[in-house]
Amino acid sequence: MLEQYAAWAPDVAFYAPIAQAAYRRSPVMPTLPNTQFIRVTDLPVSGGVPGTTTTYVLGTDDVAHRHYIGIEGTQDFRQLLTDADAVPREDNTLTIRVHPGFAAVARAVDEDLKTKRLLKAGYTVGLTGHSLGGAAALLLAMRLEKAGGTVERLVTFGQPRVTDTAGVSAFNRLMQKTTRVAGCDDVVPFVPSSGYTHGGNVLLLLDSPYFEAAREDLSRRPFAVALLELMNVRDGDAFRGHQMATYIARLAQPRTKPWTYTAVNPIVCSGR
């Protein structure tokens, strides 16, 4: 697991500020060499809840011929869990079953990028997002690959599930370039439940210095029950575990000890 963490950690640290900057109220933009960022705010989202808008940031590196996209998530913990109950539906573009609300956000960003011709031919793309933004980033990555684009990397934080097993299999190559970061006291990565599954690599942040790194859906492990039980803590604590600011703070903590769940090993997750 240490080798996996060492391989994933640089990209996780790189994309976290981009995911944070995607929030429309974020006071700063990422600072990367040779890269200019813009923020597109209040983009209408059709097909979802009436009046819904989203925000995204786009970075362009004309030296490396690379774009970076970060999509705004939601900090509304209860609303996200409510939205997660949606039944997956067939997506005409991706030809797989996906979460309709998350797909609507991805489609809005995709159409805006195309209408404004913001993506340059031949440039690779790295994507990120937190919460709903991570789900939309994954679906946007699928749309870009379906259209013949090259997705170089996808890193998400506190991302809910977006598709089913068939959808994960259809985009297996993309999943190999995906790292999902999940906090041990964040229940959002474990929803929606029925009809959905995760793909890609996952980094689970436990109490420092512990972590789990796996190439599978952690919800299939026994400690998933313990994670869901954390919903019984005070509302403010549960909310804090899902915030992007909490992810940023925990990524700054040392991660030197891999942790493997066994029947005799306790969960190393206090929510601190």
UniProtKB/TrEMBL annotation:
This is Fungal lipase-type domain-containing protein. One of its GO terms (biological process) is lipid metabolic process. PANTHER family: ALPHA/BETA-HYDROLASES SUPERFAMILY PROTEIN (PTHR45856), FUNGAL LIPASE-LIKE DOMAIN-CONTAINING PROTEIN (PTHR45856:SF24). Pfam families: Lipase_3. Residues 69-193 form the Fungal lipase-type domain. It comes from the Bacteria. It comes from Candidatus Methylomirabilis tolerans.
